[in-house]
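BUG: 3D viewer hangs when loading the predicted structure for this chain

Environment: internal workstation, default settings.
Expected: structure renders.
Actual: progress bar stalls at 90%.

Input used:
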Amino acid sequence: MRFQRLRLAAAVLALAGIAAAFFWGPSADFFRSDPIGLLRPDDVVILKQGALIYQARCASCHGVTLEGQANWRERGADGRLPAPPHDGSGHTWHHSDDVLIRITKEGVAKAVGMPDYATNMPAFGDSLSDADIVAVLSWIKSQWSPETRRHHNDINLQAQQQSPR
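Structure tokens produced before the viewer hung:
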């Protein structure tokens, strides 16, 4: 009888440990459909927030449907590039999550280490929280095709492998 109770207690503890590891441990990301990187393009709550922020703060330049401005690869008379698209036809997905977050937060010039780079893209670090920036970028990523998202995950994985630990 005593042995059965011990065995039952051990089984309950083991199941509790597995449940805790699943919900709070590092292996939980294994079960995510998009585990690589900082963005969360499958989190419905984050995506709702990101969509609202995008429409309010980004769509006027990057387009309501992420299409960007016309001739975005050609410099204008002021020497600046128009806003690129954030859909799969642009180059947003060519950059790791970390780079995208830094560009959005700090501005292009600071994020890429080119202080003289002229751009119309403002830094949003003073007006958007880190969570807001992750939300809007997560929403953008959620609009990409599965293939583009896989390519972006590969870029994130390469960036993680190259970063010093």
